[in-house]
Amino acid sequence: MFTLSKSPIVYVQRTSKSEPFPVTLEGVKLFLRVENNQDDDLILSLIAMATEYAEWHMEKSLMKQTWQISYEGYIPRRIYLSYGPVKEIISATAITSTNQERQEIKYYFSNVGSYVEFQSSPNTKMVNVTYEAGYDTVPEQIKLGIIKHVSKLYKNRESDIGNYLSEIKKAYFPFRNPRVVL
């Protein structure tokens, strides 16, 4: 007899965005050798874009921010938390299927594997885990990758920078978590 595996519906959402960037406008301008304020808005936009790209590529939160992961349907006992490093679990709540009531659920948090494991299998409709993630101090190699990305974007505004992305990704490589796809 053939049975289908249970697959949950998973939502990952950033609930608070970090305000400061890992690099400063002044530091980037110094690297670019820009001495006027004429392009400050452009450079700030490029910093924002390069930071978002770095976070996406490494699947990491560079600055402190809040995330929520939700599982609906089949709820596994262990939930891996994306976009670490995870600093703290703010809440773990279950929504019961009968009356939509929210209740706190007991869990164990592993900082090594960035996961929460529930003490018992939740018999609920949905589970929400809200957590804070981000580096206390962003590694210098990541900062340099962001600055180089901004530099390539700024200096080559009229051309495609696709060729430069492989060079920029090298700065982020040591910070990526290896994934095995079966």
Features:
single chain; 182 residues; alpha+beta; 2 domains; 5-stranded antiparallel beta sheet; 3-stranded antiparallel beta sheet; 4 helices; 8 strands; 26% strand; elongated
Would you give an account of this structure?
- The protein is α+β, with helices and mostly antiparallel strands.
- It folds into two domains: about 20-60 and about 140-155 and about 165-170, no CATH class; about 65-135, no CATH class.
- About 30% of the residues lie in helices and about 25% in strands.
- The longest helix is centred in the N-terminal third of the chain and has 19 residues, at about 40-60.
- The chain starts with 8 loop residues before the first strand and ends in a 10-residue tail after the last helix.
- pLDDT averaged residue by residue: 87
Q: How many β strands by DSSP? A: 8
Shape: elongated
Total of domains: 2
Task: Estimate what percentage of residues fall within beta strands.
Answer: 25-35%
The gyration radius over C-alpha positions equals: 20 Å
Report low-confidence residues grouped into runs of 5 or more: none
List strands and helices in order, with pairings.
Elements: E1 9-16, H1 25-32, H2 40-58, E2 65-72, E3 78-80, E4 86-95, E5 102-104, E6 107-110, E7 115-118, E8 126-133, H3 140-155, H4 162-172
Antiparallel strand pairs: 1-2, 2-8, 3-7, 4-5, 4-8, 6-7
Helix pairs in contact: 2-3, 3-4
Outline of this structure?
This protein has 182 residues and is α+β, with helices and mostly antiparallel strands.
